[in-house]
Design goal:
15 strands, alpha+beta, 7-stranded mixed sheet, 22% helix, globular
């Protein structure tokens, strides 16, 4: 077992200094991902869009049926051609790319992970969190629930660690625990789909070494509906990013 340091942004957005053209090129030069090209399959219904429509219908009310959402996610078999228009990378941090804002009841996004990128340890602000691996592999590390961490005032203990590959579906909420997600590969990128119901604007981030907590700051998106933000929007999320930068420690196995 070895310890590797990952410079990550704690549940915020990546630096705005890199242009969309540069960030998208990351996918073309690292193994495990195709370059991002706007467009989709022609002449056929897009299975990814169909899945999102099913999720929208399932979350249109005031109750989230966890099993049903997981069944919808399980039924879709990932194909990069279906969703590549939403996948935008940044070499400095993982990115959040909004697919559907869900009219305030949920949101769907693609998170794009370059090699060695990781989130902070964080909660989900009382929301449901569904996650499906669309490309590559990601490691999930589970820690105690937010209330236990806050009352302990001590270094965090890793409760479980698991590696997940394409089409795996995961679910977490604050009742289950907090977690960190990481792309521990040194050569391949990864893409994951996330659904949050209800959506939230910020969450709590925890320091593994001390148990201390802080706010993530405002959570924003690197792209919306496949389009990266303009300069004014970039300035906004750059300010949020400056409030949330940290270094986290991710355990990986040889």
């Amino acid at each position: 077992m070895m310890s590797t340091d990952y410079a990550s942004i704690a549940d915020s957005v990546p630096s705005a200094a890199v242009s969309p053209a540069v960030t998208d090129s990351v996918a073309a030069v690292t193994a495990g991902a195709a370059p991002v090209v706007t467009g989709e399959k022609k002449g056929t219904a897009n299975p990814f869009d169909a899945m999102c429509a099913e999720i929208s219908e399932a979350l249109s009310g005031d109750y989230a049926d966890i099993d049903h959402i997981q069944e919808i996610l399980d039924s879709y078999k990932s194909d990069v051609e279906d969703w590549k228009r939403f996948a935008h990378f940044n070499q400095h941090s993982y990115t959040r790319n909004l697919v559907d804002d869900g009219n305030g009841k949920y949101n769907i996004m693609l998170l794009c992970w370059d090699v060695g990128q990781a989130s902070s340890i964080h909660d989900h602000a009382g929301s449901h969190c569904f996650m499906k691996i669309l490309n590559g592999e990601l490691t999930q590390q589970l820690y105690d629930t937010p209330d236990k961490i806050e009352s302990a005032h001590a270094p965090l203990q890793l409760n479980a660690e698991s590696c997940h590959s394409v089409d795996d579906v995961l679910y977490i909420s604050d009742k289950i625990g907090t977690h960190r997600v990481a792309n521990t590969s040194h050569s391949a990128t990864a893409v994951s789909m996330h659904i949050y119901s209800p959506p939230y604007s910020e969450c709590k981030c925890f320091d593994e070494r001390t148990g201390g907590q802080r706010s993530s700051g405002c959570i924003t998106f690197f792209s919306k509906n496949g389009v990266c933000g303009d300069e004014q929007w970039k300035c906004k999320f750059s300010e949020c990013n400056n409030m949330a930068r940290m270094v986290s420690h991710v355990r990986t196995t040889e």
